[in-house]
Amino acid sequence: xxxxxxxxxxxxxxxxxxxxxxxxxxxxxxxxxxxxxxxxxxxxxxxxxxxxxxxxxxxxxxxxxxxxxxxxxxxxxxxxxxxxxxxxxxxxxxxxxxxxxxxxxxxxxxxxxxxxxxxxxxxxxxxxxxxxxxxxxxxxxxxxxxxxxxxxxxxxxxxxxxxxxxxxxxxxxxxxxxxxxxxxxxxxxxxxxxxxxxxxxxxxxxxxxxxxxxxxxxxxxxxxxxxxxxxxxxxxxxxxxxxxxxxxxxxxxxxxxxxxxxxxxxxxxxxxxxxxxxxxxxxxxxxxxxxxxxxxxxxxxxxxxxxxxxxxxxxxxxxxxxxxxxxxxxxxxxxxxxxxxxxxxxxxxxxxxxxxxxxxxxxx
Length: 364
Known about the structure:
Among the domains are: 6-51 and 142-236, Gyrase A, domain 2, CATH 3.30.1360; 282-355, Elongation Factor Tu (Ef-tu), domain 3 (Beta Barrel). Strand 16 and strand 17 form a beta hairpin. It is α+β, with helices and mostly antiparallel strands. The protein contains nine helices and 20 strands. Helix 2 packs across helix 8. The strands form four sheets. It has a six-stranded mixed beta sheet, with helices on both faces. It has helices at 11-16, 36-45, 65-72, 120-130, 154-161, 163-168, 206-216, 227-236, 270-279; strands at residues 6-7, 20-24, 27-32, 48-51, 56-61, 84-91, 97-107, 110-115, 136-139, 144-150, 174-179, 182-187, 196-202, 223-225, 283-290, 301-304, 307-318, 323-331, 340-345, 348-355. The radius of gyration is 21 Å and the shape is globular. The N and C termini lie far apart (43 Å).
């Protein structure tokens, strides 16, 4: 293994569990343990544990913490209540997306921003460049292990460990408390479209809390889950993947993320997004399913007749739906539901139809 690849505190735990380890964004991570399909269904039907300790964290503190954050992100941090979390893009001046992240508001003067692993250095540099005010920004990514516990039985497992937290936890709420000398944060967030929560714990305690929740979930059939199933789960729920569905060449409006853009705040890229909105979108991120055999991949071209009208961003064979699905930017007005197009998959064109998203939504 390349010695420059970083390991999470749980790397040895994954190896012992038979994880198929790969280089992911410079981290030695498990792509699967048994199979992507088995692990996917385990999360949909029961529960699974994901090591997401490769994610980055930036701590923002000081009297102007919210002001600085609101300058950086498109959503509204100022009006967020302490103990709540917020999903938001962070944009460049031209409206392109630097990253998408979650803001956890401990208080008006204490925020934790959780960013993508592959963009952590770029994000932190962007934040420092565009922050102005009485606030300190610190990259604390090496201080946290992060474990996602996801699935319909996840909260039942949490109730066995911390019943008071399980009873009170709601989506995009979080609690921080001391446990055996460690500060633990339990957040009602995740990236699967299922019920569940995420743990933020001191780096070195990752194996301790992994074992705790593997034991708590044993009666529910818990499994360790790799990054492969994480991708198929998030795609079924139409949760954007940075680097595929969104990046610096896309903006939140065309990506279907207008609900995360609060024009009452003065954020980087606001003027560009106002201009884009006034001029009207030329393309939109939509869902599709294949009408014939094939697996669509990122950057494959989409045609209507002989006219190129779009490009695939993500695609997979959905384990839950038993259909081949994907996301793509398709030019207006060809992006309407029911529109049939063709995707250039290698040397042939495969029929596809624009359909409603999310592809899957939990019944609860």
